[in-house]
Amino acid sequence: MIRIFKAMMLVAALVFAAGLLFVTSGAQAQQTAVVEDLSGTVSGVEVFDFLSPGKTVTLPAGAKLVLGYMNSCTRETITGAGTVTIGATGSKVTGAKLQHEQLKCAAANQLAQGQSGKSAAMVFRGQPGSGRKRAEIPQPSAVLMYTAPVFQVTRAGQLTIERLDVAETVQIFQVSGKLFDYGKTGKKLDAGGYYRAELNGKSAIFHISLDAGEGGGPLLLRLVRF
After folding, report:
1. Per-position b or e across 98-121, b if 16+ CB within 10 A of its CB
2. Of 60, 77, 102, which marks where a domain is finished?
3. Any bridge partners for residue 202, and if so which?
4. Considering only Cβ atoms within 10 Å of each terminal Cβ, which end of the chain, N or C, has fewer?
5. Residue 129 pLDDT greater than 70, yes or no
């Protein structure tokens, strides 16, 4: 009986450990915040890192950490010595000073997410003589508030940007690093345009708001993820 009891306890412990590992892995896979700016000697994070809930960052005196939360579309500026724990929509901060800023992308992206899965009413307006057929445009996963998007790059590859509502030449770029800032090419996309970006076998459809600002702006208002 003792051996059976010990065996049962061992199995239970293994099941618990496996479950804990699964939960931890799932939390790490869900990236909710991006490091927009960082100053001071801070270990464990770098600018443009994407962070998952549960990640803890220790800030020394004089340090500054700027985080953008994608689910809530908020920007946090954290200064001074303290501990920062990443959450789903915001940080838990101990010791340091925390300032919140609500960005304009919240309503636009909530609208895009709420319409996902519905049949799109937009169609291609093929230019005369282009030979391009009218076709439905899928609902965008993001609405950008500036004309120079920033694309998340998980590994080096070929990025293509295709205009969906108007026939234009497909743009192709070789990208690497963590982010590709389209604004650094000296170009801009058209306000009101619908686009498809593809990178390493993944694609994302995004829309440039009609009242989008020229060029660059806050990262969360320009970010395209795959």
Report:
1. beeeebbbeebbeebeeeeeeeee
2. 102
3. 199
4. N
5. no
* Per-position DSSP letters for 18-74, written without gaps between them: HHHHHHHHHHHH---EEEEEEES--SS--TT-EE-TT-EEEEPTT-EEEEEETTTTE
| 153/197 same-domain check | yes
pLDDT digits (tens, 9 = 90+) for 37-67: 999 999 999 999 999 999 999 999 999 999 9
User: Is residue 2 included in any domain, yes or no?
Assistant: no
How do strand 142-146 and strand 82-85 relate by DSSP bridges?
A: unpaired
> Within this chain, do residues 126 and 195 fall inside the same structural domain, yes or no?
yes
- Asked whether residue 27 is assigned to any structural domain, the reply reads no
pTM of the model: 0.75
Residue 183 tokens read as: 């604004």
**pLDDT given for residue 122 in this prediction:** 53
130 and 89 in a common domain: no
Q: Is the dihedral angle over the CA atoms 151, 152, 156, 161 positive or is it negative?
A: negative
